[in-house]
Amino acid sequence: MTWKGNKILNSINIIKKYLHKLSLLLYIYQGMEAKLLIQETTVVVFVLGGPGSGKGTQCPKIVEHFGFTHLCAGDLLQAEIESESENGTMIHNFKKEGKIVPSEITVKLLQQAMQQSDNNRFIIDGFPRNEENRAAFENIVKIKPEFVLFFDCPEEELTRRSLNRNQGRVDDNIETIGKRLKVYFESTLPVINYYNSKGKVQKIDAQRSVNEVFEDVKSVFAKFKPVVRALLHVVGSKDFIVIQLLICWSLYSLFKGFF
Protein backbone atom coordinates (compact mmCIF):
# COMPACT_ATOMS: atom_id res chain seq x y z
CA MET A 1 0.00 0.00 0.00
CA THR A 2 1.35 3.43 -0.93
CA TRP A 3 1.92 6.20 1.57
CA LYS A 4 -0.97 8.15 0.03
CA GLY A 5 -3.29 5.16 0.22
CA ASN A 6 -2.38 4.55 3.85
CA LYS A 7 -3.14 8.18 4.69
CA ILE A 8 -6.55 7.99 3.00
CA LEU A 9 -7.35 4.74 4.82
CA ASN A 10 -6.50 6.37 8.15
CA SER A 11 -8.77 9.29 7.26
CA ILE A 12 -11.64 6.93 6.48
CA ASN A 13 -11.15 5.11 9.78
CA ILE A 14 -11.25 8.41 11.64
CA ILE A 15 -14.47 9.40 9.85
CA LYS A 16 -16.03 6.02 10.64
CA LYS A 17 -15.01 6.34 14.29
CA TYR A 18 -16.66 9.74 14.69
CA LEU A 19 -19.77 8.68 12.79
CA HIS A 20 -20.06 5.73 15.17
CA LYS A 21 -19.73 8.05 18.17
CA LEU A 22 -22.33 10.34 16.65
CA SER A 23 -24.80 7.49 16.23
CA LEU A 24 -24.29 6.44 19.87
CA LEU A 25 -24.82 9.98 21.10
CA LEU A 26 -27.96 10.38 19.00
CA TYR A 27 -29.29 7.12 20.38
CA ILE A 28 -28.73 8.34 23.93
CA TYR A 29 -30.29 11.74 23.17
CA GLN A 30 -33.32 10.12 21.58
CA GLY A 31 -33.85 7.84 24.58
CA MET A 32 -33.67 10.79 26.94
CA GLU A 33 -35.93 12.93 24.72
CA ALA A 34 -32.99 15.12 23.75
CA LYS A 35 -32.69 16.59 27.25
CA LEU A 36 -28.91 16.34 27.19
CA LEU A 37 -28.70 18.15 23.87
CA ILE A 38 -30.84 21.17 24.67
CA GLN A 39 -30.84 22.46 28.22
CA GLU A 40 -33.73 24.91 28.03
CA THR A 41 -34.77 27.09 30.92
CA THR A 42 -38.22 26.62 32.38
CA VAL A 43 -40.91 28.42 30.37
CA VAL A 44 -44.12 29.47 32.11
CA VAL A 45 -47.15 30.99 30.41
CA PHE A 46 -50.02 32.28 32.53
CA VAL A 47 -53.44 31.70 30.93
CA LEU A 48 -55.97 34.22 32.21
CA GLY A 49 -59.52 35.26 31.48
CA GLY A 50 -62.87 35.37 33.20
CA PRO A 51 -64.80 32.25 34.28
CA GLY A 52 -66.24 30.78 31.09
CA SER A 53 -63.77 32.49 28.75
CA GLY A 54 -62.63 29.16 27.29
CA LYS A 55 -59.26 28.77 28.98
CA GLY A 56 -59.90 25.14 29.86
CA THR A 57 -60.89 24.32 26.28
CA GLN A 58 -57.86 25.91 24.64
CA CYS A 59 -55.19 24.62 27.03
CA PRO A 60 -55.36 20.94 25.94
CA LYS A 61 -54.94 22.11 22.34
CA ILE A 62 -51.79 24.00 23.31
CA VAL A 63 -50.48 20.87 25.01
CA GLU A 64 -51.16 18.76 21.92
CA HIS A 65 -49.63 21.15 19.40
CA PHE A 66 -46.75 22.70 21.32
CA GLY A 67 -45.67 20.19 23.96
CA PHE A 68 -46.49 22.22 27.06
CA THR A 69 -47.66 20.71 30.33
CA HIS A 70 -51.05 22.05 31.42
CA LEU A 71 -51.35 23.01 35.07
CA CYS A 72 -54.76 24.24 36.13
CA ALA A 73 -54.75 25.98 39.48
CA GLY A 74 -58.45 25.19 39.84
CA ASP A 75 -57.93 21.48 39.16
CA LEU A 76 -55.05 21.29 41.63
CA LEU A 77 -57.20 22.94 44.26
CA GLN A 78 -60.12 20.62 43.46
CA ALA A 79 -57.85 17.58 43.78
CA GLU A 80 -56.74 18.84 47.18
CA ILE A 81 -60.39 19.19 48.21
CA GLU A 82 -61.09 15.61 47.14
CA SER A 83 -58.12 14.40 49.18
CA GLU A 84 -60.10 15.52 52.27
CA SER A 85 -56.97 16.97 53.81
CA GLU A 86 -57.05 19.91 56.20
CA ASN A 87 -55.99 22.18 53.35
CA GLY A 88 -58.69 20.60 51.20
CA THR A 89 -61.43 21.46 53.69
CA MET A 90 -60.20 25.02 53.94
CA ILE A 91 -60.05 25.35 50.14
CA HIS A 92 -63.60 23.98 49.90
CA ASN A 93 -64.90 26.66 52.25
CA PHE A 94 -63.13 29.43 50.35
CA LYS A 95 -64.55 28.27 47.01
CA LYS A 96 -68.06 27.85 48.40
CA GLU A 97 -67.98 31.48 49.51
CA GLY A 98 -66.52 32.60 46.17
CA LYS A 99 -63.29 33.75 47.80
CA ILE A 100 -59.72 33.38 46.57
CA VAL A 101 -57.63 30.66 48.21
CA PRO A 102 -54.53 31.99 50.06
CA SER A 103 -51.66 32.44 47.64
CA GLU A 104 -49.13 30.31 49.49
CA ILE A 105 -51.37 27.23 49.25
CA THR A 106 -51.96 27.59 45.53
CA VAL A 107 -48.35 28.43 44.71
CA LYS A 108 -47.02 25.44 46.61
CA LEU A 109 -49.44 23.13 44.80
CA LEU A 110 -48.25 24.55 41.48
CA GLN A 111 -44.60 24.30 42.48
CA GLN A 112 -45.04 20.68 43.52
CA ALA A 113 -46.68 19.83 40.19
CA MET A 114 -43.87 21.51 38.26
CA GLN A 115 -41.20 19.70 40.24
CA GLN A 116 -42.87 16.35 39.61
CA SER A 117 -43.06 16.94 35.85
CA ASP A 118 -40.35 15.86 33.40
CA ASN A 119 -41.23 18.81 31.16
CA ASN A 120 -39.88 22.36 31.38
CA ARG A 121 -42.71 24.14 29.56
CA PHE A 122 -45.88 24.95 31.47
CA ILE A 123 -49.14 26.72 30.80
CA ILE A 124 -50.74 27.68 34.11
CA ASP A 125 -54.49 28.05 33.75
CA GLY A 126 -56.42 30.49 35.94
CA PHE A 127 -53.45 31.86 37.85
CA PRO A 128 -52.43 34.38 39.17
CA ARG A 129 -55.86 35.63 40.14
CA ASN A 130 -54.62 38.68 42.04
CA GLU A 131 -51.52 40.70 42.80
CA GLU A 132 -50.77 38.62 45.88
CA ASN A 133 -50.79 35.46 43.73
CA ARG A 134 -48.44 37.06 41.24
CA ALA A 135 -45.94 38.20 43.85
CA ALA A 136 -46.08 34.88 45.71
CA PHE A 137 -45.38 32.88 42.56
CA GLU A 138 -42.39 34.98 41.58
CA ASN A 139 -41.03 34.97 45.15
CA ILE A 140 -41.53 31.26 45.87
CA VAL A 141 -41.03 29.64 42.46
CA LYS A 142 -38.54 32.30 41.31
CA ILE A 143 -39.87 32.32 37.74
CA LYS A 144 -41.45 35.11 35.73
CA PRO A 145 -43.87 34.26 32.91
CA GLU A 146 -42.73 34.24 29.31
CA PHE A 147 -46.03 35.97 28.56
CA VAL A 148 -49.67 36.06 29.65
CA LEU A 149 -52.30 34.57 27.33
CA PHE A 150 -55.43 36.64 27.96
CA PHE A 151 -58.82 35.39 26.75
CA ASP A 152 -60.92 38.53 26.57
CA CYS A 153 -64.70 38.09 26.78
CA PRO A 154 -67.61 40.39 27.82
CA GLU A 155 -69.24 39.91 31.21
CA GLU A 156 -72.60 38.91 29.70
CA GLU A 157 -71.03 36.10 27.69
CA LEU A 158 -68.99 34.93 30.67
CA THR A 159 -72.16 34.70 32.75
CA ARG A 160 -74.06 32.81 30.04
CA ARG A 161 -71.26 30.29 29.54
CA SER A 162 -70.77 29.77 33.27
CA LEU A 163 -74.46 29.04 33.79
CA ASN A 164 -74.47 26.57 30.90
CA ARG A 165 -71.60 24.58 32.37
CA ASN A 166 -72.73 21.52 34.28
CA GLN A 167 -69.67 20.32 36.16
CA GLY A 168 -71.35 19.70 39.48
CA ARG A 169 -69.04 22.14 41.21
CA VAL A 170 -70.10 23.88 44.42
CA ASP A 171 -69.38 27.24 42.81
CA ASP A 172 -71.64 26.75 39.76
CA ASN A 173 -74.72 28.73 40.81
CA ILE A 174 -75.85 32.22 39.83
CA GLU A 175 -74.95 33.87 43.13
CA THR A 176 -71.46 32.41 43.32
CA ILE A 177 -70.81 33.02 39.63
CA GLY A 178 -71.58 36.67 40.28
CA LYS A 179 -69.06 36.68 43.12
CA ARG A 180 -66.43 35.04 40.93
CA LEU A 181 -66.97 37.59 38.18
CA LYS A 182 -66.65 40.38 40.73
CA VAL A 183 -63.37 38.90 41.96
CA TYR A 184 -62.15 38.58 38.37
CA PHE A 185 -62.86 42.20 37.43
CA GLU A 186 -61.62 43.64 40.72
CA SER A 187 -58.58 41.41 41.33
CA THR A 188 -57.49 39.48 38.23
CA LEU A 189 -57.95 42.17 35.61
CA PRO A 190 -55.47 44.47 37.40
CA VAL A 191 -52.87 41.66 37.19
CA ILE A 192 -53.49 41.41 33.46
CA ASN A 193 -53.11 45.18 33.20
CA TYR A 194 -49.85 44.96 35.16
CA TYR A 195 -48.38 42.45 32.73
CA ASN A 196 -49.74 44.45 29.82
CA SER A 197 -47.71 47.43 31.06
CA LYS A 198 -44.66 45.15 30.84
CA GLY A 199 -45.49 44.21 27.26
CA LYS A 200 -46.19 40.60 28.23
CA VAL A 201 -49.88 40.18 27.40
CA GLN A 202 -51.11 38.34 24.30
CA LYS A 203 -54.80 39.24 24.01
CA ILE A 204 -57.21 36.82 22.33
CA ASP A 205 -60.81 37.61 21.36
CA ALA A 206 -62.57 34.73 23.15
CA GLN A 207 -66.12 35.46 21.92
CA ARG A 208 -65.62 33.44 18.73
CA SER A 209 -65.78 29.71 18.05
CA VAL A 210 -63.24 27.34 19.58
CA ASN A 211 -61.45 26.82 16.25
CA GLU A 212 -61.30 30.52 15.44
CA VAL A 213 -59.86 31.28 18.86
CA PHE A 214 -57.25 28.55 18.52
CA GLU A 215 -56.03 29.97 15.21
CA ASP A 216 -54.98 33.09 17.11
CA VAL A 217 -53.52 30.99 19.91
CA LYS A 218 -51.38 29.07 17.41
CA SER A 219 -49.94 32.32 16.11
CA VAL A 220 -48.93 33.31 19.63
CA PHE A 221 -47.23 29.97 20.32
CA ALA A 222 -45.64 29.60 16.88
CA LYS A 223 -42.09 30.09 18.20
CA PHE A 224 -42.56 27.15 20.57
CA LYS A 225 -43.29 24.64 17.81
CA PRO A 226 -41.22 21.56 18.73
CA VAL A 227 -39.35 21.46 15.40
CA VAL A 228 -36.08 20.53 17.06
CA ARG A 229 -37.61 17.48 18.69
CA ALA A 230 -38.97 16.34 15.35
CA LEU A 231 -35.56 16.76 13.71
CA LEU A 232 -33.87 14.85 16.50
CA HIS A 233 -36.35 12.04 16.05
CA VAL A 234 -35.40 11.78 12.37
CA VAL A 235 -31.67 12.12 13.05
CA GLY A 236 -31.79 9.43 15.71
CA SER A 237 -33.82 7.03 13.60
CA LYS A 238 -32.64 3.81 11.97
CA ASP A 239 -32.80 5.51 8.57
CA PHE A 240 -30.12 7.96 9.63
CA ILE A 241 -27.85 5.14 10.82
CA VAL A 242 -28.28 3.49 7.42
CA ILE A 243 -27.29 6.78 5.79
CA GLN A 244 -24.13 6.84 7.88
CA LEU A 245 -23.23 3.33 6.69
CA LEU A 246 -23.84 4.34 3.09
CA ILE A 247 -21.52 7.34 3.52
CA CYS A 248 -18.76 5.08 4.86
CA TRP A 249 -19.25 2.62 2.01
CA SER A 250 -19.21 5.43 -0.54
CA LEU A 251 -15.96 6.80 0.87
CA TYR A 252 -14.43 3.33 0.79
CA SER A 253 -15.58 2.78 -2.80
CA LEU A 254 -14.22 6.17 -3.82
CA PHE A 255 -10.74 5.63 -2.45
CA LYS A 256 -10.27 1.86 -2.68
CA GLY A 257 -8.46 2.27 -5.97
CA PHE A 258 -5.57 3.94 -4.19
CA PHE A 259 -4.61 0.81 -2.24
UniProtKB/TrEMBL annotation:
Cofactors needed by this protein, per the record, are: Mg(2+)
Q: Which compartments is it annotated to reside in?
A: Cytoplasm; Nucleus
Q: What is the protein's species of origin?
A: Salix viminalis (Common osier)
Q: Name one GO biological process term.
A: nucleoside monophosphate metabolic process
Cite the cofactor comment: Binds 1 Mg(2+) ion per monomer.
Residues annotated as binding CMP are: N133
Q: What is its EC number?
A: 2.7.4.14
Tell me the function of this protein: Catalyzes the phosphorylation of pyrimidine nucleoside monophosphates at the expense of ATP. Plays an important role in de novo pyrimidine nucleotide biosynthesis. Has preference for UMP and CMP as phosphate acceptors.
Keywords, in A-Z order = ATP-binding, Cytoplasm, Kinase, Nucleotide-binding, Nucleus, Pyrimidine biosynthesis, Transferase
* GO CC annotations on file: cytoplasm; nucleus
Which residues take part in binding ATP?
Answer: G52, S53, G54, K55, G56, T57, R165, R208
Query: Do the record's keywords include Secreted?
Result: no
Which residues are recorded as binding a ribonucleoside 5'-phosphate?
Answer: K99, I100, V101, G126, F127, P128, R129, R169, R180
Protein name per the record: UMP-CMP kinase
Q: Which NCBIfam families match?
A: UMP_CMP_kin_fam
Q: What Gene Ontology molecular function terms does this protein carry?
A: ATP binding; nucleobase-containing compound kinase activity; phosphotransferase activity, phosphate group as acceptor
Listed under catalytic activity are: dCMP + ATP = dCDP + ADP; CMP + ATP = CDP + ADP; UMP + ATP = UDP + ADP
Say which family it is in.
Belongs to the adenylate kinase family. UMP-CMP kinase subfamily.
Q: Name one Pfam family in it.
A: ADK
Q: How does it assemble?
A: Monomer.
What's written under domain? Consists of three domains, a large central CORE domain and two small peripheral domains, NMPbind and LID, which undergo movements during catalysis. The LID domain closes over the site of phosphoryl transfer upon ATP binding. Assembling and dissambling the active center during each catalytic cycle provides an effective means to prevent ATP hydrolysis.
